[in-house]
Design a protein that fits this description.
Mean pLDDT: 80
CATH superfamily of the largest domain: P-loop containing nucleotide triphosphate hydrolases
Structural class: alpha/beta
InterPro entries: AAA+_ATPase, ATPase_AAA_core, DNA_pol3_clamp-load_cplx_C, DNA_Rep/Repair_Clamp_Loader, P-loop_NTPase, Rep_factorC_C, RFC_lid
Low-confidence stretches: 1-34, 141-149
Subcellular location: Nucleus
Protein name: Replication factor c
Number of strands: 5
Number of domains: 3
Largest sheet: 5 strands, parallel
Distance between the termini: 70 Å
Shape: elongated
Strand order of the largest sheet: 2-3-4-1-5
Keywords: ATP-binding, DNA replication, Nucleotide-binding, Nucleus
Family: Belongs to the activator 1 small subunits family.
Helix content: 55-70%
Bound molecules: adenosine-5'-diphosphate, magnesium ion
CATH topology of the largest domain: Rossmann fold
CATH class of the largest domain: Alpha Beta
Order of helices and strands: HHHHHEHEHEHEHEHHHHHHHH
């Protein structure tokens, strides 16, 4: 409905176009895809990509910016845009969602040139790639079924991500190009800091500042991901995650995924291994317990060593025992890193711990601090 109203006070567009125009949303039933990744690849995607907002409505926070951008699109009038602000606040996502809204998911490829200025920042890139892309005529706007012939669909979009990393010469060249091709292209410049951009560029763009995301926004996104991915996490850990991310959604998603994927042994498994090794004098049964735990929980000896040595430090034991353990564990770690067999070194671990225990004698039981 709002499309319709905005349409009226501008010009020529018949309302039919407006309806078709906003139908991108329903036609894009490939939910939350990033660029053009095949659906089956989604499961292996990093969460920052998997949960990248698909439409402008999915972008959290920044309500005022989104409203303005939507207005531009509804009015079929898009100025050059400059989005700036700290990382992980949704700048790239907003532009991609905008492009998807204008062209639809299928046509995005042909109509959007996405350059990451931090890898290709020389003058050559600006001259060649942008020039070639901006000066070629698009064939697709002639096809009848696309975007309903919306006026914006005729413009190509050039996205310059991380443009503040461009050399100043390249920025100069860009200025001319922007002017020359304004008839059929729109630029969208993304940067962290405006002070690294040439004032001439700044004055040609409509600026939007993306502030760090609010904790409430981050929390609701994180909660969503936790639920979808079935992450086991304590409420206090979520609190820290939200606070420590300091408004950077990318960081909080990456930390969450790293914690989720971490294969570090669970403290209770380490406790069980330690208790068995310290109390059972039958070496074979010790070895069996450790091997069973390793295979059922998928633990690696290297991780067990690290966690176990940490735990052993905390026990109060005679010096001789401690020396045996420390030397032995260090030796095993060294051999393991050098390619020693996992099975033999596991045996070595049992041997070292039992050795230390034998030294303690009958009545010296190890004590927790
Ligand atoms: N405003 C937001 N709403 C929803 N998700 C966001 C938002 N900002 C960032 N994200 C998440 O963080 C990731 C990185 O966002 P991105 O748009 O690339 O940030 P920027 O370009 O500002 O550094 C996205 O894939 C998305 O998962
Ligand atoms: Mg970005």
């Amino acid at each position: 409905m709002s499309d319709f109203e905005d349409e009226m006070d501008i010009d020529v567009q018949p309302s039919k176009d407006a309806i078709q125009f906003s139908s991108d949303k329903s036609s894009g039933k490939t939910k939350r895809l990033t660029a053009d990744l095949p659906v089956e690849a989604e499961d292996n995607l990093p969460w920052v990509e998997k949960y990248r907002p698909n439409t402008l409505e999915d972008v959290s926070g920044h309500q005022d910016i989104l409203a303005t951008i939507n207005k531009f699109v509804d009015a079929n009038r898009l100025p050059h845009l400059l989005l700036y602000g700290p990382p992980g606040t949704g700048k790239t996502s907003t532009v991609l969602a905008l492009a998807r809204r204008i062209y639809g998911a299928q046509n995005m490829r042909q109509m959007v040139l996405e350059l990451n200025a931090s890898d290709d920042r020389g003058i050559d890139v600006v001259r060649e790639q942008i020039k070639t892309f901006a000066s070629t005529k698009q064939i697709f706007s002639m096809a009848p079924s696309n975007t309903g012939g919306s006026a914006l669909g005729k413009f190509k979009l050039i996205v310059l991500d991380e443009a503040d990393a461009m050399t100043s010469t390249a920025q100069m060249a860009l200025r001319r190009i922007m002017e020359r091709y304004t008839a059929n292209t729109r630029f969208c410049i993304i940067a962290n800091y405006t002070h690294k951009l040439s004032p001439a560029l700044l004055s040609r763009c409509t600026r939007f500042r993306f502030s760090p995301l609010k904790e409430a926004d981050i929390r609701s996104l994180i909660d969503h991901v936790i639920e979808k991915e079935q992450v086991l996490i304590q409420p206090e850990a979520v609190d820290s995650l939200v606070t420590l991310s300091k408004g950077d959604m990318r960081r909080s998603l990456n930390v969450l995924q790293a914690c989720h994927a971490s294969t570090a042994p669970h403290p209770s498994d380490i406790q069980e291994i330690m208790a068995t090794l310290l109390s059972t004098s039958d070496v074979t049964s010790c070895l069996n317990t450790v091997n069973t735990l390793k295979s059922t929980k998928g633990l690696a000896l290297a991780d067990i060593l690290a966690a176990l040595s940490d735990q052993l430090q905390r026990l109060t034991v005679p010096a001789q025992t401690r020396i045996t353990w420390l030397e032995g564990l260090a030796e095993i770690e060294f051999r393991l890193a050098g390619g020693g067999s996992e099975a033999l070194q596991t045996g070595g671990l049992v041997g070292v711990l039992r050795n230390g225990c034998e030294l303690m004698g009958e009545n010296d039981t190890p004590m927790a601090p």
